[in-house]
Amino acid sequence: MKTIKNRLLEIQLPSKRSAFLRGPRKTGKTYWINNHFPDSPLIDLLKTDVFADYASRPALLRERHLDYHGLVVVDEIQMVPDLLNEIHWMIENTDVSFLMTGSSARKLRRGHANLLAGRAWRYTMTPLSYTETEGFDLEDVFISGLLPPHFDIRYWRTSTGFEVDFILGEMDVAIETKASRLVHSAHTRAIRALCEEHRISRAIIVSLEKHPRTLEPGLQVLPWQDFIERLWAGELGV
Hints:
Elements: E1 3-4, E2 18-22, H1 29-36, E3 42-44, H2 48-56, H3 60-65, E4 70-75, H4 83-93, E5 96-102, H5 105-110, E6 120-124, E7 133-134, H6 138-144, E8 153-157, E9 163-168, E10 173-177, H7 189-197, E11 202-207, E12 213-216, E13 219-223, H8 224-232
Parallel strand pairs: 2-5, 2-6, 3-4, 4-5, 10-11, 11-13
Antiparallel strand pairs: 1-7, 8-9, 9-10, 12-13
């Protein structure tokens, strides 16, 4: 489908600074840390023997790395939440810092895990974006979905029965997607109905047209490539 060009994520940790790296499964967190921190000890909790060691005795982390100076990477930290107590102690009392990856912050919160109370920075790895890939294919995007997950995304059904595909934020941006090379009045009915019911900051129809155009103040038609570039450049106002 596509070739990864370059991930936009950058983590530059000062000495003795720890961090969480979170993100959905299969976004490439493990691959990324293996390539960016190849010299750091890696505790991979997906390995059954490693998991069994630390799940049965979290203090092993302290015992094995007490005299280490530098960064230790713990992959899939949510699998052994009790390790966070040991990490907390080591951040306060040793020269060890940690990069902790995980796909489920909800699991940690639900289990009342120690989230380190500001002692670790937080980073998020999102699914691949348009600017990070070559061979980007629109059909694959609609199948696999590449809208960044940190947006508050919903759809909307109007009181008259029309549906709008995506709402970003609190009615900040309304988006309709149309597989058409020429957007006409029938394509705008749902989004116009929404604008009549609510105050929308910006309304966009994403289509296969080749050039952007404005239908009326606040309502634009954008080629899908333009839309994705503006989305990832932060130009949509959300």
